[in-house]
Design goal:
Number of strands of chain A: 5
Distance between the termini of chain B: 27 Å
Shape of chain A: globular
Number of strands of chain B: 7
Strand content of chain B: 25-35%
Number of helices of chain A: 4
Low-confidence stretches of chain B: none
Mean pLDDT of chain A: 89
Radius of gyration of chain A: 15 Å
Shape of chain B: globular
Number of helices of chain B: 4
Structural class of chain B: alpha/beta
Strand order of the largest sheet of chain B: 1-2-4-6-7
Helix content of chain A: 25-40%
Largest interface: A-B, 24 and 24 residues
Largest sheet of chain A: 5 strands, antiparallel
Strand order of the largest sheet of chain A: 1-2-3-5-4
Structural class of chain A: alpha+beta
Helix content of chain B: 25-40%
Distance between the termini of chain A: 15 Å
Oligomer: heterodimer
Order of helices and strands of chain A: EHHEEHHEE
Radius of gyration of chain B: 12 Å
Largest sheet of chain B: 5 strands, mixed
Chain lengths: ~140, ~110
């Protein structure tokens, strides 16, 4: 089935763009036709997942290098919603991070955990000379 | 980050006047709290009534403040959480760490 919505954005490698991208994600959720679930909750979760993935790409994968950029691709169909975040860094071991259990009082280490909790499928691979964090949410 | 400080006795109320607490601005709150700890002010209430969105960095800044306050025999308590912000504390189980109050008066009276 062809995707109904596709948003492709590239932003400079700076955290000031987190809010912009998060709000675009929320708008995509509110424009979904026929979604029967809790739209407000899904919009918030998408904002959060985009914020976590983008912050990870900017601050960790791309080492806060202002000369780099981050590309975000959001696509949605009746069945699922997929986010791809591309970075230009050295990559990281997402399997190890997903298995790491942050202790309750740890200051960090929750970002990837939150992504795994809120999304149904998460992959981190290499594509066209960039790393891509691909996260899918099933809509039914 | 826009922050408003109000002191009542030895308690400092920090009102976060932002819609979002994320990796872009949470470091500011963390630094401000460290300044207060250096001044010997270790009993803090963080008023989150304006905050609609919080990410792992925002939560991390609050955990940092909580740990630093506790290490100095003070306390850091939260009040006025919007429902979606509250849900983030439940998702990460941090609602078991922080004392969370419905309003500022309740938080003040708890010290």
């Amino acid at each position: 089935m062809s995707k109904r919505i596709q948003v492709d954005i590239t932003v400079p490698n700076q955290t000031k763009y987190l809010g912009v991208i998060g709000r675009i994600g929320e708008s995509v959720v509110y424009s979904l036709k026929g979604y029967q679930g809790n739209r407000r909750e899904l919009a918030y979760h998408l904002n959060l997942v985009l914020t976590e993935a983008l912050a990870n790409a900017i601050c960790h994968a791309n080492s806060c290098d202002p000369d780099k950029d981050v590309r975000v691709l959001i696509s949605a169909s009746d069945k699922d919603l997929t986010i791809k975040v591309f970075d230009q860094g050295q990559g990281f071991d997402i399997e190890a991070l997903s298995k790491h259990k942050a202790r309750t009082k740890d200051e960090g280490g929750r970002g990837i955990q939150i992504i795994f909790k809120l999304m149904d499928r998460v992959h981190y691979t290499r594509e066209e000379n960039r790393n891509v964090l691909e996260m899918t949410k099933y809509l039914h | 980050m826009q922050i408003k400080l109000t002191e009542q006795g030895d308690i400092v109320n920090i009102s976060v006047e932002e819609e979002r607490m994320d990796a872009h601005n949470s470091g500011d709150l963390k630094e401000r709290m460290l300044q207060l700890f250096d001044e010997g002010k270790c009993n803090l209430i963080i008023d989150l009534s304006s905050v609609r969105f919080i990410d792992s960095s925002g939560l991390g800044a609050l955990v940092s403040g909580f740990k630093n306050a506790s290490a100095r025999e003070g306390n850091l308590k939260l009040c006025c959480l919007q429902p979606q912000v509250r849900s983030m504390f439940e998702l990460t189980r941090l609602h078991r760490v922080f004392e969370i109050y419905a309003d500022l008066d309740e938080a003040l009276n708890s010290f």
